[in-house]
Structure formats: structure tokens, C-alpha cells
Amino acid sequence: MLFGMMSMAAAQAAPMRLLVLGDSLTAGYGLPREDGFQPRLREALAGRGISVAIIDGAVSGDTSAGGRARLAWALADGADAAIVELGANDGLRGLDPRAMEANLTAILDVLAAKRIPVLLTGMLAPPNLGASYGDAYQAVFLRLGARPGIRFDPFFLEGVAAVPALNQADGVHPNAEGVRRIVRRLSPMVEQLLKGIQG
Length: 199
What we know:
Oligomer: single chain
Distance between the termini: 25 Å
CATH class: Alpha Beta
């Protein structure tokens, strides 16, 4: 009986496994490791009393196709929940939004089949690609964000994009303060995602 109680306590104390499947924005491109999105998110969640082990599935330069190709590897040891942050590089390269939708749909289908709850974060296309492309691109995220069981954040860089003081010299990647602001905005959504697992 005592052993059973100890096992139960150990299981309760075990951190939840959170997969971050993304690109340079969640990989911490151009920043010291401790200032990247994943360490900052883990720190913010710990401050809310939530212990997580983050599975680093973020690769700088990756497209939705790249994320789809390595999803099985990222899930090799299982995951309790996932953040999917992909598509920025599809937009920067002007790739077909229909292909991006097919890739993201395949990713979400796999996660749904494994009963892994998801926070999907969206992106906006670069304005130089034109309104028609931008509308088609954004519509992909709006459609996928409406899927049952998906928590949806329409724009990962909300409040940070195009603000020089919050971005690195390239004007694309958030600096340390930009990351802190993103984490501050998203951490309540991630908390709700994880609390849904704890039930």
C-alpha cells in the first residue's frame, strides 16, 4: 500500500512532456540559450506551479514540410501536449499555402490520433507578397485553428513584429525582450492546455 502511494506521488510529481514543434522563432535563433522561447516558457510555467519537460522539436529555417517529416522522430518518446509553430518560413519563401495546409493538417492529424492536445500558433505572410497571397496564407491558420480540440493563437509575433526595440538586427527574430513578451502572452494559454491534461 505504501509503495503504491509512493508510486502515485512520483507519477504526480513527474513533469509533463511538452513538444515544441517549430522553427527559429521557438528554437531561440540568435539568442543565448537561456533567453530562447523554450527556456523562458519553462521558467514562466514553473512560476505558475507547472513543471514541464520540453521536447525540443524546433529547427531554425524549417518549413511546415520539414516539421511534418520529423514529427515521428520528435514523438519517439511520447508527449503529453504540443505547441505547433510552423509556417513562417513557408511565407518567407512564398511557398504555396495549399501545401502548407496539407503539411500542417497531417501534423495535427497525427497529434489528434495520439490524443495529444495542441496549441497551434499562427503567422502572417510578409506584406511584400501581396494581399492575395497574404489572405490565402492567413486563411490556412484560421481554418486549422477552428478544428475541434485545437487551442489557437492567431499570430505568434503579436505585439512584437515590426517593433524595432523587440527584435534583433534582422528585423525578423525577436530579441530577449521580445521573447519575454511572447512568453508572457502565451503562457496562460499553455497553462490551460496543460491543465486540460491534468483534468
